C-alpha cells in the first residue's frame, strides 16, 4: 500500500493531514522557528543546510522564510531569496544558480480538486513541481503556480502571477503573466 507521502511525491491525490506528513511539517516548523529568529549568519546557513534538500554555495535566504517540508527544495549557487518568501514544497521546487527572488515571492506547488468538491472538502490534494532556471530575476510579490517552469535568463515583473511555463531569455509580466519581449 502506498503511503500518502509516496502519493504526494508522485503527483497523485493525497491527504495532507496524514500523521507522517503532519509530523514532517511540524519538524520543519521547529527548524523554521530557529532559522527565522537567529541573527547569526553561520547558524542561519547551517539551519538552511539542515532544512533544505540542497543549498548552493554563496546562496542566502532572508527571514522570514516559510515552507512545508524543506526537503523538497533545491537552491543553486549564488541565489538570493529576499524577505518573506513562501515555498510550499509538497512537490519539488528547484531554483537554479544566480537567481534573485524579490520580497514576498510565493512558490505554490499544491493543487486542490477543481471538479470534485467532495474530494476537496474531504482534504484531498495533489502537487506539481516548480522549476526556475539559472540567471532568473523574479520581482517582488511574484506568485509561481504549481507545475510551472521558468527558463534561463528570464525576468518576471513584480506582482506577476505565473500560471504557465515561461521560456528562456524573456521579460514576462502581469496577472496572468505573459511574455512582453525577448531579452537578447
Automatic annotation (TrEMBL):
SUPFAM superfamilies recorded: Trimeric LpxA-like enzymes
A Pfam family that the UniProt record links to this protein: Mac
Which key words tag this protein in UniProt?
A: Acyltransferase, Repeat, Transferase
CDD domains on file: LbH_MAT_GAT
Q: Which GO terms describe its molecular function?
A: acetyltransferase activity; O-acyltransferase activity
* One GO cellular component, as annotated: cytosol
The Maltose/galactoside acetyltransferase domain covers: 5-57
Gene3D superfamilies the record matches: Hexapeptide repeat proteins (2.160.10.10)
- Specify whether Oxidoreductase is a keyword of the entry: no
The protein's matches in InterPro entries, at most eight in alphabetical order, are given as: Hexapep, Hexapep_transf_CS, Hexapeptide_acetyltransf, Mac_dom, Trimer_LpxA-like_sf
Family, according to the entry, reads as follows: Belongs to the transferase hexapeptide repeat family.
- Name this protein carries in UniProt: Galactoside O-acetyltransferase
> PANTHER family, from UniProt?
ACETYLTRANSFERASE C18B11.09C-RELATED, SIALIC ACID SYNTHASE-RELATED
